[in-house]
């Protein structure tokens, strides 16, 4: 943590290499979080870049408070999601993008991963905002319960309860299948 604080301080003083290191350490976590929240690869990539642009621009005013630098980045990412939702409420919803079949990424595993992410994103639409936030931070960004509690301003117990209720709701929804209500799930032997 002390190393991170020194890195942030160096970045604030204009050290581009220090900011690059912060970027490299946090990019994939922020991207996964945003991917789970928005469900679109290209949109998540764009939003992740915007998070780091905003962080870079606001870095001179950042004050170290003993929490990981990622906490601040996730607050920016959360605000990006809220801004996107506001913009979308003014326009019609866009469907999750199609898988790019021309890319090298089109392996069986990539297709399965894409479908799994799409299923989770679709199922998570029925969750509360707080539950979606916990799922995104815990599983998308791979943050600890304590880190999520700090970011969301809640107790660890509240985060565990939100996570539990979200996971239960996701299981029920995903067992029901696409567009199905929980009661429509087929019995499994």
Keywords:
mainly alpha; Arc Repressor Mutant, subunit A; 2 domains
Task: Give an overview of the whole structure.
The protein is mainly α and 189 residues long. It folds into two domains: 1-91, RNA polymerase sigma factor, region 2, helix turn helix motif (Rna Polymerase Sigma Factor, Chain: A); 106-183, Arc Repressor Mutant, subunit A, CATH 1.10.10.10. 70% of the residues lie in helices and 0% in strands. It has eight helices and no strands. The chain has helices spanning 2-12, 16-38, 41-58, 69-90, 108-124, 129-140, 145-152, 156-176. The model is unreliable at 92-108 and 182-189 (pLDDT under 50).
Largest pleated sheet: none
Spatial extent as radius of gyration: 18 Å
CATH homologous superfamily of the largest domain - what is it? Answer: RNA polymerase sigma factor, region 2, helix turn helix motif
The count of helical stretches stands at: 8
CATH topology grouping of the largest domain: Rna Polymerase Sigma Factor, Chain: A
Oligomer: single chain
Q: Using DSSP, what is the number of strands?
A: 0
Arithmetic mean pLDDT: 78
Shape: globular
CATH architectural category of the largest domain: Orthogonal Bundle
SSE arrangement, N to C:
HHHHHHHH
Contiguous runs where pLDDT drops below 50 for at least 5 residues:
92-108, 182-189
The first-level CATH class name of the largest domain: Mainly Alpha
């Amino acid at each position: 943590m002390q190393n991170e604080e020194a890195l942030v301080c160096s970045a604030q003083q204009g050290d581009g290499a220090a900011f690059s290191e912060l970027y490299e350490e946090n990019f994939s976590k922020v991207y996964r979080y945003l991917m789970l929240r928005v469900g679109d690869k290209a949109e998540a990539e764009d939003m992740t870049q915007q998070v780091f642009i905003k962080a870079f621009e606001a870095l001179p005013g950042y004050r170290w408070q003993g929490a990981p630098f990622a906490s601040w980045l996730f607050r920016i990412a959360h605000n990006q999601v809220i801004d996107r939702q506001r913009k979308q409420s003014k326009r019609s919803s866009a469907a999750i993008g199609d898988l790019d079949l021309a890319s090298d990424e089109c392996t069986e595993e990539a297709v399965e991963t894409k479908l799994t992410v799409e299923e989770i994103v679709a199922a998570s639409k029925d969750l509360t905002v707080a539950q979606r936030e916990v799922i995104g931070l815990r599983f998308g960004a791979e943050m600890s319960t304590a880190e999520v509690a700090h970011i969301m301003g809640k107790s660890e117990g509240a985060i565990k309860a939100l996570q539990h209720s979200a996971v239960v709701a996701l299981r029920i929804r995903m067992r029901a299948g696409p567009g199905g209500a929980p009661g429509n799930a087929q019995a499994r032997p």
